[in-house]
Amino acid sequence: MKVGFIGLGIMGKPMARHLINGGHTVYLFSRSGVTQDMIDAGGKSCTNAKDVAHNADVIITMVPDTPDVEKVLFGRDGVAAGLSTDHGTGKIVVDMSSISPIETKQFAARINKMQCEYIDAPVSGGEVGAKNAALTIMCGGSEAAFAKVMPLFDLLGKNITLVGGVGSGQTCKVANQIIVALTIEAVGEALLFASKAGADPARVRQALMGGFANSRILEVHGERMVKRTFTPGFRIELHQKDLNLALSGARALGISLPNTATAQELFNSCVAHGGAAWDHSAMVRALEMMANHEVAKAA
Amino acid sequence: MKVGFIGLGIMGKPMARHLINGGHTVYLFSRSGVTQDMIDAGGKSCTNAKDVAHNADVIITMVPDTPDVEKVLFGRDGVAAGLSTDHGTGKIVVDMSSISPIETKQFAARINKMQCEYIDAPVSGGEVGAKNAALTIMCGGSEAAFAKVMPLFDLLGKNITLVGGVGSGQTCKVANQIIVALTIEAVGEALLFASKAGADPARVRQALMGGFANSRILEVHGERMVKRTFTPGFRIELHQKDLNLALSGARALGISLPNTATAQELFNSCVAHGGAAWDHSAMVRALEMMANHEVAKAA
Asked: Is A180 in the B-facing interface, judged by CB distances under 8 Å?
């Protein structure tokens, strides 16, 4: 398949490489340039996103945030320009960035008007998941388009779900980030309470893992809180971006997310103390600062 | 073993029966009287808690709340009176109620002064767990006393942990209830966001179960929210009691639990709408009322 890949950051680079290794012709573009190792691996370097869209039948974008997607799709020398010059009917744009579900629907509508398909397919699993081709991929779009790009997703991830129509992938990713943040917060409150009350938080975590309170977060991030290993992992500044999507989305939709709001404030407090690059499990530090007590102190 | 069992409610009755069936001599007392079926099963009815403590070597209490434990232990004709008249040195008081970890330490100190041991051993698993002898039991106390009563716990539960010294069992139970309530809240916010944004919450739940956001709560209570099955289960009014232990404990300890506070307010809102006996997963209804949108509406 002729595949375009735009955005060769920490996530995008290993993903593009999996597609090349999977035997596809992969046209590459990145604002910071295409590195020589990607060309040596067999990738085709393009001068802009328009050039990528001109050459490829499926164009994947993997950039940081909503405005970046908008720029790469609809800006000067962007994907849309490449689709139109090519009379690109039937091409598929796949946005794997994590961005606003609401603006995603607008982007999709503009792409659809050009007789092209749009799939939103944000991922979870981070750098490790990207390198190991073990990403979870949450997709929104038509079943027909999803079926066409499924062979590409198979090279990138393991848990691949078509959640619903366009925007549903991004919506699912936001839901994921709400649950992850709020479960970190829950484990933080519980372990802080236990520690301050004089119990050993490591043994409390162990006891709770046998019951209804168990979760992947309690296992992985509960251990981080007890052992104080706050090297990322997933950086707080990235999770802040995701909770911003949740909170601005909630406002636009007219719903209230009280604990997401609190979790964001706790992240903000961490950043105020220099923690933008701490692992997101370090949210517990904001609770600890309020309480003037550390989870690990009682251990 | 000569065992006393005080409190024969929904939980206590099947638990006492397991001890009788396990071959122990079980002395029974309940404020509402000992029913004939328990006597037919082989239980020995006593006229008060003092009488139970006089006859038994291990005295188990299973009553609703902190003041109930205080009354049954130290009130007129209470356990303490039975321990002292009997020169009860070496007897063990096991409180399996879910009560304040802070007052538990005071109760234990008073019992210890009588040369008796005290173990706090609250459970999770509810009525089903009690009937099936599958309770999770979280214990605080000395290793020696814990070893002595372990054969009794084995007849009642499956996941039995000595978390630490006296009070650690109750502390662990409170931590458990914080995480359970806050994870329910997290799943509620996530599914409400997804539904209002136009995604099918059932498919979002399914997709999230494959990843880092997964938990027993997402599996069990996420399904309840989607299918609207809010028959208990575990009643909101009971979880309110537990979060009150968390919040009053936090205040006494000088720590802040912001999302536990919000979760309690959401439970309060459910109760205001007649939901004291709803399953605790119905906390999502309070979020739905604020948003004027139901999770299941988009499905």
From this structure: yes
